[in-house]
Amino acid sequence: MGKRTLVRRRGKGGKQFRAIITGKIAPTKYPNFEINEVHHGIVMDLVHERGRDAPVAKIKFDDNNYSYIPAPEGTTVGSKIEIGNGAKPLSKNILDLGSIPDGTLVCNIEKNIGDGGKLIKAAGTSAIVFSHSVDSVKVKFPSGMILNMNPKCRAMIGVVAGGGKSEKPFLKAGNKAKYMQSRGRLYPVVRGIAQAAVYHPHGGGRHQHIGHPSSVARNTPPGAKVGNIAPRKTGRARIKKRQ
């Protein structure tokens, strides 16, 4: 019979594969203010949330409510922040994309109007407001992809702080394990060919080899769906010689 492969065990969503919720402070999103209203806030504290590399700014707005937002570079305790369409297009202010000039670096972008910010929230990341049209705003993301966004979606001007965090070496495997555990990611990862045949489709044999093509179809059943899933091409790229 064998055992369930790791892919299938993770799919069930057991406790050992979930991200740890201990140390979480609050959802990081914008307050639900009207778009046409201008509100002011002040950064009360910069805090660390487990499983997040970027620092989180604890902001108190003029309605005496607190919000937690990923802090952009240059944020300090006591920094003032404006939110709304009438806010000035300066660093750390929150405006709708339609009011942000072309070429501006933005972060924490709303995917849908009023969702509080879903895109570009990782440490050191930013997107560029590429161009404006009548009913959309083109935003260029770090991947190079350009999306047409709703001009009423809000974004924060600036770059998310904490860039370069991944460049610091872990030095010890235990530190890496805790880092991955806080994000609910699998670590360490054992190669399929290094496992026994009962644990993985690539396992077993006298030598460490797959024994069959590593490409599998898109509709392959769970447990066997490992390797190169529905690849367009595999192997080395063939460069044609110029005549």
UniProtKB/TrEMBL annotation:
Domain annotation Large ribosomal subunit protein uL2 RNA-binding: ranges: 11-83
Positions of region (Disordered): 218-243
Highest taxon of the lineage: Archaea
Protein name per its UniProtKB record: Large ribosomal subunit protein uL2
The entry's keywords: Ribonucleoprotein, Ribosomal protein, RNA-binding, rRNA-binding
Record-annotated Large ribosomal subunit protein uL2 C-terminal domain positions: 81-222
Subunit (UniProt): Part of the 50S ribosomal subunit. Forms a bridge to the 30S subunit in the 70S ribosome.
Entry annotated with the keyword rRNA-binding: yes
MF terms in GO: rRNA binding; structural constituent of ribosome
Biased composition (Basic residues): 233-243
Family in the record: Belongs to the universal ribosomal protein uL2 family.
CC terms in the record's Gene Ontology section: cytosolic large ribosomal subunit
GO biological process: cytoplasmic translation
A Pfam family: Ribosomal_L2_N
Physiological role: One of the primary rRNA binding proteins. Required for association of the 30S and 50S subunits to form the 70S ribosome, for tRNA binding and peptide bond formation. It has been suggested to have peptidyltransferase activity; this is somewhat controversial. Makes several contacts with the 16S rRNA in the 70S ribosome.
Xref: InterPro entries: NA-bd_OB-fold, Rib_uL2_dom2, Ribosomal_uL2, Ribosomal_uL2_arc_euk, Ribosomal_uL2_C, Ribosomal_uL2_dom3, Ribosomal_uL2_RNA-bd_dom, Translation_prot_SH3-like_sf
Gene3D superfamilies in the record: 2.30.30.30, Nucleic acid-binding proteins, Ribosomal protein L2, domain 3
SMART domains registered for this protein in UniProt: Ribosomal_L2 (SM01383), Ribosomal_L2_C (SM01382)
